């Protein structure tokens, strides 16, 4: 259990956060299915992305970490096997805590000639897989839940010819969309995934970068449809993964909360389908400047943040809901911490998806904010936070959820007494060096 105390002085300094988790996973997966080799720099060496590497190695893909990096930049080289070159794994594929590995890989496996089985840790075995099993079955795949509860372990029967579908998903989920599109690479006919709001579109951007024919269709199917036309091979590419905005969000929040702070975070991905957190805190008066914006496969920028007193846009209740939610779904825990110390009432709605993340995040946010003295109530699809109550230290149960551990580490910076966080090592999932970077900013 780690012990943390209030920030002794303003946070000053610069930080590079690790590579984007979603983009790192996809880099390895798409490179494995490509012809020729791909070089990946900026790859996130967190437990989730290492699970993806392990799984593809078990399917015969040679993936090398450079010991002596060229020009000092650590590089991962993936020797692609082409769309039809994966080998049958000799044991079940273990995805650890990673929903992205599990769901995206299921789409690929559903179209292979061989049988396979996927499973993960205790949390993965509770997460809903019916949401991918249904569309995959519509495409002609045979995917069964071994325990019959629509959860992992999943058994995937190979050797079935898939056909394209038009799928209307009832929730905006990039994992579901990506699973279907990846199966669609092997299907006969086009695959279309329609969502109520656009979820992160890294799969569309990156598959196109690797050579696939895929786009977001704003006319025929509405702005939140992805359309894939199969038949194009993928080719090896060089990929430079930007810093993860989900990881940057913790230090953005820290700088906004601690008076006098000024922090510069370098090279962060700012894809608009991921950047809702920036928009939301700006609406609450956050002083954030984007510098050195550029686009290298995905848009990125340096983010300069200065301490700001957060308030509701019209000194009224701040309602966070609708299409912005999927663009900041992983940042809701840290956003809730900010809302608790802001000078307003915040209603977070349309966020029922929080219940099926690494933990039930509506419950784990409310439990821990309440333990620190905040006024917060859970609702069916979010929570209501009456901001402005001073926070005190508490024992935080992270429920082994990395985003809960990091959000409440940041909350400790404004708590009046010591905060202890249980199972803080779960930050390894997405940000293994989190506490080192956290301390360097505090002690600068
Ligand atoms: C992810 C999509 C999101 C997100 C997860 C990563 C991805 O999940 O919460 O951390 O890389 O596609 P959903 O698709 O379930 O919303």
TrEMBL record:
Among CDD domains, the record links this protein to: EPSP_synthase
Q: Which family does it belong to?
A: Belongs to the EPSP synthase family.
UniProt catalytic activity = 3-phosphoshikimate + phosphoenolpyruvate = 5-O-(1-carboxyvinyl)-3-phosphoshikimate + phosphate
GO BP field? amino acid biosynthetic process; aromatic amino acid family biosynthetic process; chorismate biosynthetic process
List positions binding 3-phosphoshikimate. 21-22, 26, 173, 175, 330, 357
Q: Where in the cell is it found?
A: Cytoplasm
Entry annotated with the keyword Isomerase: no
Per the record, the domain of life is: Bacteria
PROSITE patterns named in the record: EPSP_SYNTHASE_1, EPSP_SYNTHASE_2
The top EC class, named as a word, is transferase
- Involved pathway(s): Metabolic intermediate biosynthesis; chorismate biosynthesis; chorismate from D-erythrose 4-phosphate and phosphoenolpyruvate: step 6/7
UniProt keyword list:
Amino-acid biosynthesis, Aromatic amino acid biosynthesis, Cytoplasm, Transferase
Q: Which residues bind phosphoenolpyruvate?
A: 21, 99, 127, 175, 361, 403
Task: Indicate what this protein is called per its UniProt record.
Answer: 3-phosphoshikimate 1-carboxyvinyltransferase
Checking Gene3D superfamilies in the record gives: Enolpyruvate transferase domain (3.65.10.10)
- List the catalytic residues: 330
Q: Which organism is it from?
A: Butyrivibrio fibrisolvens DSM 3071
- Signal peptide extent: none
């Amino acid at each position: 259990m780690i012990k943390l105390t209030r920030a002794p002085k303003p946070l000053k300094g610069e930080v590079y956060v690790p590579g984007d988790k979603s983009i790192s996973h996809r880099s390895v997966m798409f490179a494995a299915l490509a012809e020729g080799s791909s070089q990946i720099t900026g790859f996130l060496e967190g437990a989730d992305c290492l699970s993806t590497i392990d799984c593809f190695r078990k399917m015969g893909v040679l993936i090398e970490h450079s010991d002596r990096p060229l020009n000092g930049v650590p590089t991962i080289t993936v020797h692609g096997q082409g769309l039809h070159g994966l080998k049958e794994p000799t044991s079940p594929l273990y995805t650890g805590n990673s929903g992205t590995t599990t769901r995206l890989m299921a789409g690929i496996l559903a179209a292979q000639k061989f049988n396979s089985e996927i499973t993960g840790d205790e949390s993965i075995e509770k997460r809903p897989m019916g949401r991918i099993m249904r569309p995959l079955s519509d495409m002609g795949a045979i995917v069964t839940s071994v325990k019959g509860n629509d959860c992992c372990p999943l058994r995937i029967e190979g050797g079935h010819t898939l056909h394209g579908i038009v799928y209307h998903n009832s929730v905006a989920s990039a994992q579901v969309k990506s699973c279907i599109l990846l199966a669609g690479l092997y299907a006969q006919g086009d695959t279309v995934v329609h969502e109520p709001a656009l979820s992160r579109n890294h799969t569309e951007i990156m598959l196109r970068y690797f050579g696939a024919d895929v786009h977001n269709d704003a006319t025929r199917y509405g702005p939140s449809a992805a359309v894939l036309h199969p038949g194009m091979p993928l080719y090896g590419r060089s990929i430079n993964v930007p810093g993860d905005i989900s990881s940057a969000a913790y230090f953005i929040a820290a700088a906004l909360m601690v008076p006098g702070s000024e922090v510069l975070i370098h090279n962060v991905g700012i894809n608009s389908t991921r950047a809702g957190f920036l928009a939301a805190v700006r609406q609450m008066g956050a002083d954030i400047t984007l510098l050195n914006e550029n686009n290298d496969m995905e848009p990125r920028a340096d983010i300069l943040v200065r301490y700001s007193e957060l308030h509701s846009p019209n000194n009224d209740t701040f309602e966070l809901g609708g299409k912005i939610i999927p663009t900041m779904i992983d940042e809701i825990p840290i956003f809730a911490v900010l809302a608790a110390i802001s000078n307003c009432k915040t209603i977070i709605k349309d966020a029922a998806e929080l219940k099926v993340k690494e933990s039930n995040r509506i419950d784990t946010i409310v439990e821990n904010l309440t333990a620190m003295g905040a006024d917060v109530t859970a609702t069916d699809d979010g929570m209501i936070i009456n901001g402005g109550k001073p926070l005190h230290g508490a024992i935080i149960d992270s429920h082994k959820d990395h985003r809960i551990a990091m959000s409440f580490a940041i909350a400790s910076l404004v708590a009046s007494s010591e905060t202890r966080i249980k199972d803080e090592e779960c930050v390894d999932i997405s940000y293994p060096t989190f506490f080192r970077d956290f301390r360097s900013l505090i002690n600068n």
